[in-house]
Amino acid sequence: MRAAVISDIHANLPALEEVLARVDAAAVDEIWCLGDVVGYGAQPDRCAELVRERCEITLVGNHDLAVLGELDISAFSSVAAAAVDWTIENADGGTIEFLRRLEPVGSRAEVGLFHASPRDPVWEYVLSIEQAEDCLEIQSQRVGLIGHSHVALYFAIPEPSDREPLGAQAGNGTLLDLGSGKWLINPGSVGQPRDGDPRAAWLELDTGEWTARYHRLEYDIDRAAEAIVAAGLPQHLADRLYVGH
Ligand code: ZN
């Protein structure tokens, strides 16, 4: 199975369209989405429609749950909360219905799928090796995929187990050999990268060869930013797309 893994689209339609075009060119078997289809960006309905049409499995993320009214947003930043309110007012019923059917955890082709982490699928930002070790201990699958932090990275507990656990951010073109050990892999964010690289992120996973390759690609940031401003969303949400934070 060759799968394209996407996450954290956040209603950024130009970024999603660019990624899907590249995914089509790669001729993968399936597309898996790790959640946060909406929130922050200005085009939730078309993004939800594309994800519903194109992805074999889609998880629900914390921003999606907030829009559904199923999550306390007191921990959200003011701009994130403003985007939740905007999305509640502007998303159509079909988008809400689609999101309501989704779960924050899943699995596909022996791979564990979690929006945030194996031990806390909605909230935990896995950014340290210590956290990843704890998560991998309870992860039943050998390979797991996470989103949520918007940082393209990976963690591994190698085999044999006397070797040190490892973790690193992963730039464009990074190729992982997943043939042994336990893994936790974040593809990065399609619609709002926060790892200093503003390009849209996706991951190509091969569960036959057990390899993963990170991809970043340029998209029309102006188009996404202009849509955010035109929608009356906070200017900061447009500006941050250019810096990838
Ligand atoms: Zn997110």
CATH architectural designation of the domain at 2-111 and 174-179 and 190-242: 4-Layer Sandwich
Ligands, ions, cofactors: zinc ion
How far apart, in Å, are the first and last alpha carbons? 33 Å
CATH superfamily of the domain at 2-111 and 174-179 and 190-242: Metallo-dependent phosphatases
Largest sheet: 6 strands, mixed
Beta-strand share of residues: 15-25%
Shape: globular
Catalogue the unreliable spans: none
CATH secondary-structure class of the domain at 2-111 and 174-179 and 190-242? Alpha Beta
Portion of residues within helices: 25-40%
Give the structural class: alpha/beta
By DSSP, the count of extended strands is 12
Descriptive report:
The chain has 245 residues and is α/β, with parallel strands linked by helices. It has a domain at 2-111 and 174-179 and 190-242: Metallo-dependent phosphatases (Purple Acid Phosphatase, chain A, domain 2), CATH 3.60.21.10. Helix content is 33%, strand content 22%. The protein contains eight helices and twelve strands. The protein has a six-stranded mixed sheet with strand order 3-2-1-11-12-9. Strands 4-5-6-10-7-8 form a six-stranded mixed sheet, with helices on one face. A hairpin with a 4-residue loop joins β11 and β12. Bound molecules: zinc ion. Zinc ion is lined by residues 8, 10, 36, 61, 63, 148, 150. The site of zinc ion (ZN) has 7 residues, from loops.
